[in-house]
Amino acid sequence: MFNQLGVIGCGLMGGSFALALKRAGLVRRVIGYSKSPSTTELAKRLGVIDDAAESALLAVSGSDIVLLAVPVAATEATFKAIRHLVEPGVLFMDVGSTKRDVVDTARRVLKERIGAFVPAHPIAGKESAGVQHADASLYSGRQVILTPLPQTDPVLVQKATDVWSKIGAQVLKMSAENHDAAFAAVSHLPHLLAFAYFSAIVNQPAGRDFLSLAGPGFRDFTRIAASDPSVWRDILLANREEVLKQTARFRHSLDAIEHVIKAGNAQALEDLIRGAADGRSNWQIGGGRGPSAK
Amino acid sequence: MFNQLGVIGCGLMGGSFALALKRAGLVRRVIGYSKSPSTTELAKRLGVIDDAAESALLAVSGSDIVLLAVPVAATEATFKAIRHLVEPGVLFMDVGSTKRDVVDTARRVLKERIGAFVPAHPIAGKESAGVQHADASLYSGRQVILTPLPQTDPVLVQKATDVWSKIGAQVLKMSAENHDAAFAAVSHLPHLLAFAYFSAIVNQPAGRDFLSLAGPGFRDFTRIAASDPSVWRDILLANREEVLKQTARFRHSLDAIEHVIKAGNAQALEDLIRGAADGRSNWQIGGGRGPSAK
């Protein structure tokens, strides 16, 4: 299907994409670039890439599909480094967890060349980063959100849809705005709350003692509090407008539950909890609008 | 070790305790009482109890160990029903998730007989309630907190420690006040936040659509939001003073993280997240003060 994949950023996400395309027989050759030469060297030794490029631009040269899998903060510099080779007919995608900021940057840097860029957010990851954890199955059974612009080449959107589908992902399309609003609600806010909650525990005098009594509920509730600090710093700042809308909604909900507790209103408290408990019982991953959604 | 165990409330907790004592050869006979005769009937058919008692008082009669495993709201009525048979030398325990309210009720109802009562909180449970889910291994490897009073008979505290230890639990002792403060922090607050968060999602216009995009982080973070509404209504109200202290601490922490996001202060945001992430990475269940604690 593709002649050459250029991977810019040979980490978990970029490396897994390369392995998945290789395994599915979707690409003849993979060329990779990473800021650190030792990463590219490791990626080559692991068979994730076939050759190392000496720059991001050289990873694009001769490629008909390019994946930008760099930290969000490096997106602008990467677009600038490659823009002269962003040409019609070559599929460019990213893997960022926020989309409005990436789209804005792409618009500003790529200008009239933006039609080749199909913004993508694969809902996949692992607790352990790095190319040594790259996995050909990382995207299998997971959702990938594409947020094409009016200027995006529809042929490339179709190619993007096909390549993700062929490596086992379910592709959804929406606007960058809707994407960021939805993920502020179901991903960014829970992370923010888990960080705030864990901080509140460890910053109180008896906090360390309390931790020795915590059980399985606590373990699951706080798992995401162990996420990568620099990644989440960037996500929460990049999507701050939507995130702050969600914290406002959450505060409203917290006020309501505190109010009925203070008032000792058992029935209202039970009703409030039941609304959440019923909703959660009927939800399941990847489907999730209730039992009928299957 | 014991001649007869009286179980008042033959549900998951009471039934599992009976099965565990039987399996460990710690009791000759188990007599059970439940408000609903069909429950006691089922418990007998499943071999959880040997005989059904027609009242709570009759379940106490002839027993040298008694477990009250009734909903928190039924504690007072149960103590009243059995108080005439609360005698020195017989070990009485409960399994409630809050302890100050139980101790206060016991003091008020049992009066000078309170020495026989050893308040207990086994940190164990299952998502599915009912005697049909009773499990002899439910308490194995789990913590049990005892909160004895100055008046509690030390011989009975030792017997309580022994019986929980012999069915595989790790026994800790602390005051009812410290217990309630600790569990407000590591259990009650996370439940309250999970209820509030899930409510905030489902009560917004696009909430149902957002849910279809939620992933594994959301799944784990919200698992406890599916907990039993009437149980959690009772816990949050019974421990409301400590719970509200914890929501105040949490709000302080939420304010701080929102403040740095609004200010766009990347370094302060990263530091705040890193404090939580490092703390959570070093925590593990049942040990948990960092890597050195094992």
Q: Any chance you could write out the topology, listing elements then pairs?
A:
The structure is a homodimer of 294-residue chains.
Chain A: E1 2-8, H1 12-23, E2 27-33, H2 37-45, E3 51-52, H3 56-60, E4 65-68, H4 75-82, E5 91-94, H5 100-110, E6 117-118, E7 120-122, E8 143-146, H6 154-166, E9 170-173, H7 176-202, H8 207-211, H9 216-222, H10 229-238, H11 240-262, H12 266-282
Parallel strand pairs in A: 1-2, 1-4, 2-3, 4-5, 5-6, 8-9
Antiparallel strand pairs in A: 7-8
Helix pairs in contact in A: 4-5, 7-11
Give a brief rundown of this model.
The structure is a homodimer of 294-residue chains. Chain A has helices at 12-23, 37-45, 56-60, 75-82, 100-110, 154-166, 176-202, 207-211, 216-222, 229-238, 240-262, 266-282, and strands at 2-8, 27-33, 51-52, 65-68, 91-94, 117-118, 120-122, 143-146, 170-173.
* CATH superfamily placement of the largest domain in chain A: NAD(P)-binding Rossmann-like Domain
Shape of chain A: elongated
Q: Could you give a short account of the major beta sheet of chain A? A: 6 strands, parallel
- Quick one: CATH class of the largest domain in chain A? Alpha Beta
How large is the count of helical segments of chain A? 12
Broad structural category of chain A: alpha/beta
| Low-pLDDT stretches of chain A | 288-294
Organism (chains A, B): Pseudaquabacterium terrae
Keywords (chains A, B): Oxidoreductase
Domain Prephenate/arogenate dehydrogenase (chains A, B): 3-291
Protein name (chains A, B): Prephenate dehydrogenase/arogenate dehydrogenase family protein
